[in-house]
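Try this one yourself first.
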């Protein structure tokens, strides 16, 4: 029983970290119909910048805020100069964002060198709670709380606010929304910046979680985020959250019981879901 609970907590915390990256990609890919492989580059920049700020200042809060701001600046540059000219063209989006991904990953080495960087946990999040053999690591509980709060805030933003209504309307009928005097281009830039902020936040939280960050992790997590978005259903925030939890929990149990199959698990889950429900778990109906 203790092993089961520990694996569940580990899986949920990992899943919610994946969700932060997948949620941003859901907004950009699912809602705006933009194939953005450079999203993983924003994630790794959030990880490295957050780790560097934390190591230099000792302030975890400042590290997270700094990583988010850097991610938003890079996201704005990507959207403005790389992606905006290729809206509506998936082939060009794929090629240009893959190039952006490589640029972001290689530029990490210019600032921090080619070697991985070790990251310690914040002092106030070190240690664990123990209850009758059940070990609950403080930082993983912290990640779970942050992930749940952000999911709730995103859901409220997209389903209960005027800006969320405008985003969904702009996706369904861009010309009509423009005719009503709404700046759709500015609205989509806001969505892109929000997605970039979530990716950078995910990276900043992952750095202490994993204990080490390296430049090549961007592509690894970008592919994982795309798998989660497809499993959950294109454009579905709830679907991405559910798929992230499934991938995280299944990965935790597989790594413990059958570690040899852990690397193939995500592709296996993707294949099963697409065979049973090609639109994804929650891909039918309205978006978000």
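Now uncover the answer:
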């Amino acid at each position: 029983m203790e092993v089961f609970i520990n694996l569940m907590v580990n899986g949920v915390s990992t899943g919610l970290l994946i969700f932060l990256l997948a949620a941003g990609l859901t907004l950009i890919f699912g809602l705006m119909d933009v194939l953005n492989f450079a999203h993983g580059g924003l994630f790794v920049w959030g990880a490295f910048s957050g780790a560097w700020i934390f190591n230099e200042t000792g302030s975890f809060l400042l590290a997270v805020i700094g990583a988010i701001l850097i991610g938003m600046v890079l996201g704005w540059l990507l959207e403005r100069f790389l992606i905006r000219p290729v809206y509506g063209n998936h082939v060009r989006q794929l090629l240009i964002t893959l190039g952006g991904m490589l640029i972001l990953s290689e530029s990490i080495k210019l600032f921090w060198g080619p070697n991985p960087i070790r990251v310690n946990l914040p002092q106030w999040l070190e240690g664990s709670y123990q209850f009758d053999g059940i070990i609950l690591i403080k930082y993983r509980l912290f990640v779970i709380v942050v992930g749940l709060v952000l999911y709730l805030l995103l859901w409220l933003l997209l389903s209960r606010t005027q800006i969320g209504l405008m985003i969904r309307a702009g996706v369904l009928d861009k010309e009509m929304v423009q005719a009503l005097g709404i700046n759709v281009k500015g609205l989509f830039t806001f969505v892109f910046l929000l997605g970039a902020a979530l990716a950078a936040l995910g990276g900043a939280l992952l750095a202490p979680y994993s204990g080490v960050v390296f430049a090549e992790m961007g592509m690894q997590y970008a592919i994982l985020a795309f798998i989660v978005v497809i499993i959950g259903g294109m454009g579905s925030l709830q679907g991405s959250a559910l798929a992230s939890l499934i991938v995280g929990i299944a990965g935790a149990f597989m790594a413990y019981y059958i570690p040899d199959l852990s690397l193939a698990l995500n592709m296996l889950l993707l294949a099963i879901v697409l065979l049973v429900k090609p639109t994804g778990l929650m891909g039918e109906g309205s978006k978000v």
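Discussion: The beta strands are 117-118, 128-131, 134-137, 212-213. DSSP finds eleven helices and four strands in the chain.
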